[in-house]
Design a protein that fits this description.
By secondary structure, the protein is mostly helical. The mean pLDDT is about 95. It is globular, with a radius of gyration of 16 Å. It contains seven helices and three strands; from the N terminus they run αααβαααββα. It has a three-stranded mixed β-sheet. α2 runs parallel beside α7, α3 crosses α4 and α3 runs parallel beside α5. The protein has one domain: Four Helix Bundle (Hemerythrin (Met), subunit A) (Up-down Bundle).
């Protein structure tokens, strides 16, 4: 399954820029490639930039990495719920509140990357074992339509988006 197979009715238009960043690899290939690229990306960041904010109240790269982890868990949970239950309508989440309460900057990069790898492994296993029929199921998250497969591609595109932001504004 590839991004080109998604229809615009499977996700809210807000997410289109994320989906568009993925390219046309399969979901599993996108998740695996993204994992390797993201680990390399964060390991190459200068240590002086890991807790850097380009403006007051902006997230640090460590905050962003933990935000990626939290968001991936959230998208996985949404995909799980939609694939297993009928008429799903899940609450949204406040990413700013999550970041504020996550304390990413008290953790080492090594520790954050270890958690990232674990979450990505779980994502890959979930989507690898999802049936074609389940990929097509839709539900609602934050009152917006979301298919199981769109949730998977959002993990990938969201990650690319945030790495681009770091490159543009932090380096």
């Amino acid at each position: 399954m590839k991004v080109s197979e998604l229809s615009a009715e499977e996700y809210h238009p807000y997410f289109k820029p994320y989906i568009d960043k993925v390219g046309n690899d399969s979901l599993l290939k996108s998740l695996r490639k993204g994992k390797n690229k993201t680990i390399k990306f964060f390991k190459k960041l200068p240590s002086s930039k890991l807790e850097y904010q380009y403006e007051d109240a902006k997230w640090t790269p460590k905050d962003i990495l933990l935000h990626l982890i939290d968001s991936e868990r959230t998208f996985n949970y949404r995909a799980l719920q939609v694939s297993r239950a009928e008429n799903v309508n899940l609450e949204g989440f406040d990413e700013n509140e999550f970041v504020k309460n996550a304390n990413a900057n008290t953790r080492s990069l090594k520790n954050l990357l270890k958690e990232y790898k674990s979450v990505r492994k779980s994502s890959i296993n979930f989507f690898k074992n999802t049936t074609e029929n389940d990929f097509l199921k839709t539900g609602k998250a934050n009152n917006n339509i979301l298919s199981v497969r769109a949730a998977g591609f959002l993990i990938c595109g969201h990650e690319i988006h945030h790495k681009q932001i770091i490159t543009e504004r932090y380096l």
